[in-house]
């Protein structure tokens, strides 16, 4: 994955323009209108739009006693179970709603070797003050149903060190006992299968680093715990033989290359514990690392590092990296695989040994890569790289040649140690931000996401054949717009090294970068709007620190740009879909709607007194109509204007509106179907109205909520009832009536 992924899904300041980039929501108490709740909906079938992963796989766990059973965890997209019969990953945490959005980051997972149906998840995405506490889920049916225990501490499934672990472990002496390592609160223990948790005495004190216990692993009847708050000289590996007293493991490696234990695996044949180390938690920032093994019967440590970091790379740069994943072969003594991490110049690899670490082979060197199922993995190049951010690494206990590793974008696997391909089907983790459903053309959907830019979806059931939009390649998409009266013309904006804006004359199939861009685009990004006839562009910007900047206008396809001083900073422009001379911009700072009737050259204030300070708003123009505007706010619901923003009226019955979009009208209706993510009466979910917001039906259900989904929703203008929902970590969901 790109190095910039360190800032993935960052929280930005609460401004209107920042709202266009934010993927971690602020969810205030929701006002409830005194109106009937949404009525029951006809049954909907929900599926992922196929993209092929696109997010960081932080852990993979094969069950040691069940062939073909495996689990995967992600940093913001929940957990999955592998269905060996269909060769597909099945999501296990889609039932979390917006109030539990912080539980879609999986800090750790654990299985019970003696009870194959038991599964445990430690959940929590962030540890900051604005985040909710973590939780532990426990299941007796492999994640089909859950029981939940809320914790009094926070977990950090999307923070530095999220590729470490596992931090959750079933005690090898007693299946009712579980251990949970935390970042800031030491070690927790449960003696009732995760129903209750209590802190235990541990011989190390947390620091501000946010690492704490990095791993827990059983070696026979002994439990080992890695400690991430060491300075490289103080103890960083502890063990307990009785489940009560923890002691530092003597003779451990010291120094920068062994500062932080990342992962560990136990070879039961040789009674040796293999530990990977780095000088930081990763996935970014590691520059040094090592691999060591501990003979648990003698206490002897041996340095078995395959290649020591710090040499000269082929491009002349410093070959700096850490070590990440480690897995042992359950059937063959001394057969181990380890991975490098954050090795950009030489590219990360997986090393394999069959003699206990005396000699190693780099599997990258002989690898044949096939990414035809997910072409975006070429990242605009001629061929893909072997991998990056490899901290999740697993070896099938029933097949010595079946190895998988997670990256910042996919899960790669081999069954012969040579041929590698994504084993990602069904696992979708994109943080989607923009959705377009064109009224004509090959694709029913064009999307914009964090980390993987814009994609043109010719089919909803296969990863786009063109991969990521290139020329230029964006790391993260921040804007996507289509000329309503000229749908072949599409524009996009984002953050990237090659440029920040581009246009397409063939409906989004191919792109050409703007000839120029405002100077602020070097340091900021933001949404973009295009007039109905495709002749005028308006582009606003917000810096990654949340500061807002002016809106810029181009009337020559991006060749030249000029500042529009009459648009308040942070007000996001929206084009009128029927009148090319009209644009609108809502200033959440003052609760004022601004409008332009001269193709965006100047704006004047219209309606005032609208909801202010609501950073998660959307202003949407109804298709085919001039001046028909809908303003979604969380705190004060849904508002509508039919006079170009001169006046607005609040829609009764809507307690909170996070985003809104339109689709094909129902048979016999003269107004487009409206889709809304929000609260109708007391029911929160995805809703549809076929009668201009007079009545609503909820079309998702409690098992299909996907955490926070307040970024974008849009109906298909060609298929009534079909709707696309952008999620913050579960990709793009699309629903259709059964």
In short:
The chain is 1% helix and 37% strand.
Do you know the CATH architecture of the largest domain? Answer: 7 Propeller
* Fourth-level CATH superfamily of the largest domain: YVTN repeat-like/Quinoprotein amine dehydrogenase
Count of individual domains: 2
- For the largest sheet, list the strands in their spatial order: 28-32-31-30-29
Task: From the alpha carbons, calculate the radius of gyration and give it in angstroms.
Answer: 26 Å
Secondary structure tally: strands:
59
CATH-defined topology of the largest domain: Methylamine Dehydrogenase, Chain H
Largest sheet: 5 strands, mixed
Q: Quickly give the structural class.
A: mainly beta
Can you give the helix content as a percent range? under 10%
β-strand amount: 35-45%
| Cα shape | globular
Q: Figure out the total of helices.
A: 1
Low-confidence stretches: 1-36
pLDDT averaged residue by residue: 93
Write the layout of secondary structure elements.
Blueprint: H1 16-19, E1 44-48, E2 57-62, E3 70-74, E4 79-83, E5 88-91, E6 106-112, E7 115-123, E8 135-139, E9 147-150, E10 168-170, E11 178-181, E12 187-190, E13 198-199, E14 213-219, E15 222-227, E16 237-240, E17 247-248, E18 260-267, E19 272-278, E20 289-295, E21 301-303, E22 311-312, E23 318-319, E24 322-328, E25 336-341, E26 350-353, E27 361-362, E28 368-369, E29 393-395, E30 403-406, E31 411-414, E32 419-422, E33 432-436, E34 445-449, E35 453-457, E36 476-482, E37 490-495, E38 501-504, E39 512-513, E40 524-525, E41 528-530, E42 537-543, E43 548-554, E44 562-564, E45 572-575, E46 583-587, E47 592-596, E48 604-605, E49 618-621, E50 629-633, E51 637-641, E52 649-650, E53 654-663, E54 673-680, E55 683-689, E56 697-698, E57 713-715, E58 723-726, E59 732-737
